[in-house]
Amino acid sequence: MIRCEGLVYEYPDGTRALDGLDLSIERGERVGIVGRNGSGKSTLVRHWNGLLRPTAGRVLIDGHPTEGRRVAELARLVGLAFQDPDRQLFARTCRDEVAFGARNVGLRGRELERAVEEALGAVGLADRAAANPYDLGPSKRRLLALASMLAMRTPVVVLDEPTMGLDATEIARVTVVVAILAADGRTVVAISHDAGFVAGSFHRVVRLDAGRVIDDGSPVETSASRV
Amino acid sequence: MTLELRAVSYRYPGYRRRALEAIDLRVGDGEIVGLVGPNEAGKSTICLVASGLAPASIGGELAGDVFVDGVALRGIPVHELARHVGLVFANPASQLSGIAGTVFEEVAFGPVNLGLAVPETVGRVRVALASVGIEDLAERRPDRLSGGQTQLVAIAAMLAMRPRVLVLDEPVAELDPEGRRLVGEALRSLAGAGTAMLVAEHDLDLLRSLDARVVAIDGGRFAVPA
Amino acid sequence: MTLATFVLGGYVGPTVLFAAVVVPSALVAGVLRRVVVGSVLVTLPFAIAVGLVSVFTRPGSTILFELGPFEATLEGADFAARVVVRLLVMASALALFGLTTPPRASVIDLERRGVSPRLAFAIGAVVAAVPALVERARDVRNAQRARGLDTEGSVRRRLGGVVPLASPVVIGSLHEVEARSLALEARAFGRPGPRHLPWAPPDTAPERLARWLLLAGLVALVAASVAGALPTLP
Q1: Is the CB of C145 less than 8 angstroms away from the CB of A51?
Q2: Regarding beta strands B213-218 and B196-200, do their DSSP bridges make them parallel or antiparallel, or are they unpaired?
Q3: Contact C198, B112 (CB under 8 A)
Q4: pTM of this prediction?
Q5: What DSSP state is assigned to residue B143?
Q6: Which member of B37, B170, B176 has the closest CB to residue A37?
Q7: pLDDT in tens, B161-176
Q8: Which residues in chain C (60-99) have CB-CB distances under 8 A to chain B?
């Protein structure tokens, strides 16, 4: 489903964020991506929806290279939820906010409504559908941003630090969401520093360091080999 | 008794319901108290009230009183509060002034605002940097540090105000594991030096490592008296 | 510098100023390319606007070409060109300042010269906020594109993206300002009374001399212009 071949990414100032990275993720897998800050995790996933383009090497989504395909097009396949909800929330109601992404990828009418309702329900915000996003606390806004991406119904779901700042109940919800997505046959990838969350919800952990994959296996295997 | 909230209830400006209801909380001399609870239960509100910033800076209605070493915070002007209670927030970057060229200048910002003489300012900054172990960052640019380092600068900046008690609202919630380690170490060091602290956190490991007495809040109240 | 550009008018004056003052300073500071690029980028929208308006609407006798009901005049083009040249030079002066003077140095310097600390802070904070704002805008753009917002399609589509792109930047910045204000207030920011700064930005003798020369030159220019002694350059 996601394939990176010799992926290299260099910033304009010359620093190499990704240094010939090879990675293959099959449909339906649940993969956690771990590594220190600066190891290239965020840079990597931004290649999957075209926000970043390789300096060298290539990225294939569902068998087709990302080259020449617009972000708006790739966003239908790969949903990427960013860390800071306050850098995307803009609608007057939570419902409108969640509908934004879904509408962009072409959902309409009854199908759109259902997608929005399901997404809000999945994150536990069904009763806040008519509220203004900024009337919600910061952790609920994170869940709202997650819902907005879920409603897009993308085959691949990528989460960036989904449990940061969440309390136990909220983390449990995210865990359930991951399980439901997996049961639905979707591919779920999460960047996370939360070892417990990763070990509990993902069957495979990919560890990055200095722009390369240095470890790839089950949560137990990869943490045992951690220096 | 270093910090005491007595029968505190608080309502944010513009809201009808109270965020805190009949709160009694004590932090003794040199004691570390951990505050846990679900999000939106009142942890941040208690931190704001304990520091006096609520209502002095953000307004709202406070019933009951907050005492620091017997002095009531009610009525104390905002710029005098840090002498009694220092507050550190979860987001490291938004606590910095944004106009300091070096970490030293950033930490000096507070003492300079207090109108202290230059030797006193310099002395306070040095002590503050040392107490969280970042003397080697003194000449670095504050905007070029890691999350954990930035948070340590924010803590040092508060310490330079010489508060009697330090209140921290989820100090490591937005940090990566390395940052958590750095800040955890610094907090342990402060605790060891006898600093009284109130730490609101989800990270139970951190609270355990501080040997904190943990109290739990939910829906604006303590289930068990604190 | 900016004032001098106005006083001189025409093409030759500003161009000479640019060559004599901005270029050497920029070369010394190593920012010449960025100054040029920056000032062109900033001036471009104005240049287009001014150009369109002046070329077609200024009264003139020499008609260059016609576009529908509008006539493009040489006088109009000439006027537009003068304005653009002035704008470019002014922009380059500002760019030079922005690129070479760290915000803190300006803030400290202002305060030392008697400007209220809060005003000095506000000025410094605004300048320092620009890169943060740019970064925030970039993050918002990435997030909305990841949600399928099409920023590469037709103009109409892109207009529909204005609210999702601008709104979070504004609201987010306001929230951040609010959080920062609280944190700074707690560090006695609003306290009245004297402040004793333990440092001062470096000020070398050549820099001081250059400043005085520039000031003197400006005064002379203004005086000469007022006295009618300035030759009318093209």
Answers
A1: yes
A2: unpaired
A3: yes
A4: 0.80
A5: G
A6: B176
A7: 999 999 999 999 999 9
A8: none
